[in-house]
Amino acid sequence: MRLLLVEDDNHVAAALSAILARHGFDVTHARSGEEALQALVPEVDCFGVVLLDLGLPDQDGYEVCGKIRKRTSTPVIMVTARSDVRSRIHGLNLGADDYVVKPYDTGELLARIHAVSRRTAHEDTTGSTETVVRLGAVRIELPTRQVTVDGSVVQLTRKEFDLLALLAQRPGVVFRREQIISEVWRTSWEGTGRTLEVHVASLRAKLRMPALIETVRGVGYRLVAPTG
């Protein structure tokens, strides 16, 4: 798999590139946001994953993430020193597929890279025969992957849509965390659990319906169909 590493520290990039190469990745190194955007020209874009460090010298990393998403659907994993949920949600809202927080374990990073690449290869994970799911003011169009609330389109990332579509298959039924991670992230790696929490928080905020997805403590989540 070809991987675009966006990192301004040459020493960090060299060490990480060596590790990734040992695990079969063909790494291209971009030292700035501008270099990254130039490497992602649509006609020649063939990267499997973009690993984006947010501490860039020329542009705000979040801004670069938004620009990347506008020109390609290649999965983006953010690398950030910020561990607060609000910062993570901001990155996910801009189109990032996942994140790792510094300092991170190499094994964790590799697991996340493989997880987003597997999910991209299996983008249609809902398994539903319906084409449209209606939940009160929420309308989920599975073929076009479009979600609207009261007729207004809500922009969701791929993972957010897959998560919502999965829960919407059986409103009221509790989905175990392990099941959600397996079906949406295509992995059983336990470290993905925190990512699940962030995606649930992001969905609640974007849909402006905090009560739509209920947390069942110690078990998982269920979608509560609106009444009336």
TrEMBL record:
Q: Which Gene3D superfamilies match?
A: 3.40.50.2300, 6.10.250.690, Winged helix-like DNA-binding domain superfamily/Winged helix DNA-binding domain
Cross-referenced SUPFAM superfamilies: CheY-like (SSF52172)
Q: Which UniProt keywords apply?
A: DNA-binding, Phosphoprotein, Transcription, Transcription regulation
Please state every residue range assigned to the domain named OmpR/PhoB-type: 130-225
PTM 4-aspartylphosphate: at which residues?
53
- Chain residues forming the annotated DNA-binding region: 130-225
Where is each Response regulatory domain found?
Answer: 2-117
Name assigned to this protein: Sensory transduction protein RegX3
Lineage here is: Bacteria, Bacillati, Actinomycetota, Actinomycetes, Kitasatosporales
